[in-house]
Fold this protein.
Amino acid sequence: MSHVKAGGTAKNVHNNAGQRLGVKRFGGQKVRAGEVLVRQTGSTKLAGEGTYMSRNFTIHAAKDGIVNFVKTKKSHFSGKSVPRVRVEVR
């Protein structure tokens, strides 16, 4: 027979910090070159004119200007088009 009683199960042990994703600069705001505009997982928003996308899909401002969000349609390889938001700096 066992000499140790059964231990309970641990359910609330995964305590990870949030990734702080989302839009950091909103439409109409002035930005400087290099500022983070959007932090995202995957390419949910597209980098437009005056912006660039880094390796982890973060969209940065490539030049000084004003942020603008434009709704566009992006077509997949299969021909299906899906709505996306394009981030621009003008």
Summary: The chain has a mean pLDDT of 92. The CA atoms of residues 7 and 21 lie 38 Å apart. DSSP finds no helices and eight strands in the chain. The first strand starts at residue 22 and ends at 23.
